[in-house]
Design a protein that fits this description.
alpha+beta; 2 domains; 6-stranded antiparallel sheet; 19 helices; 50% helix; HTTM-like; Sporulation_signal_mat; transmembrane; HTTM-like domain-containing protein
Amino acid sequence: MALLRMAVAAVVLLDLAIRSTDLEAHYTNLGVLPLYVLFERAWNPYEFSVHTSSGLWQVQALLFLTAAGCAVGLLLGWRTRLMTVLSWMLLVSVQNRNPMIVQGGDDLLRMLLFWGIFLPWGRVWAKDAQDQPPPARYEYFSAATVAYVVQLALVYVCTAALKSGPEWRTEGTALYYALSLDQLLMPGGRLLYPHYELLRALTHLTFYMELLLPVLLFIPVATPVWRLVFVAAIFGFHTIISLTLFVGLFFLINFASVLGLLPASALSWLERRLGPPLRRAWGYRPRLPTWQWPWQLRVQADWHPAARAHRHFRLLPALRDTVLYVLLAYTIWWNLDGIARPDYALREPLRWFGYLFRTDQHWGMFAPTVFKDDGWYILEGRTRDGRLLDLYRGGRPVTYRKPYSIMALHKNDRWRKYSENYLFVSNSWMRPYYCNYLLRLWQENPRNPRLKQLEVVYMKEVSLPRYRTEPVKREVLCGCAP
């Protein structure tokens, strides 16, 4: 649990660092989604966000620094529960500020912090445990540990269940089409892409792995061994994904998510190697038993005064566990909505809790099928003397030839996700704000030639079976002028 806490905190810090590079673009009124547009087009009235309190970059910077401070506190295990709550609130807030750049990994990171509020992940390897003797026992069982394990299972079972297209179930062409998306293709994917039959076999392997691997989490015999197999499989699975497809922080979030499952034997091995730095950092050496159930960690109630809040928190464990089981049932119901029969759908009047506390989640990665529409952007700026410059490539002359690496054109995965949402007809309202934002940035630089017009052009290329594509079509998505 301590490793889980530290890994989640580290991912939150990395996420904040990446987001901060687009502070103005994604979170202020001068960017692609001003506050009045957010509230008019993409806001859920049940949601909350302190990041919507101002459209100034200075306020956003202060909120980002606050979130980073809370994440550092969580990493060190200082006032762990408070830092967990604050980190969760600020993460929900920043995600709600710009939903057009949110991806599946954000849901998992959010849920890890949510269930972490109720986990004792600050009991060891934490400042809160400094100068305290190790717990008498490490076995711990509660609704929170059940919720954590079930949440991990839901991620993979639901994404497999949602993959209902023939590309996944019968044809086995899903990975072929996924690697045909040049905006996602990584160098490892280029090596796999020419092997059509291998991709078919890997497609079926991926589907059944996602569907059946979570069974390992619930085997009651030799549980630590099966959990270790699950962790190793997840690390291998997401390592391959990260080498073949551009998925941002998704693979790191999944790495962090399974660390709470590591058996005590693995932690004993780690502690023997990290013991000296841990003692220097926290003044405490956690002596782990050689064997235990991975989701068990019993914590004594006679804690150091710094952890007094936790003792009071456990005064009504039965009531707490009851509430958590209800929340878990609600989460399962939300996940099954859309998979099960419509008679069992989660009706709108019951959805307010999921929206408010952001326990809403959807694991439709490449589901029900894989997009076949691919392409690349050209930001076609026409100068006053008639030249055509591509702002997407630093103002070079426009060329309609396909770039070698379309993925490399995206600054980060947030912009890639934004460009994906930008294409949908239902999101056409996004287009003028993006166009005007780009035009303003260009015109503010006195070294750039003045533009008469800017057009956002998409070169659409539809993938067909067996390495064929439809002819590339030039589509003008939006235009703007000074």
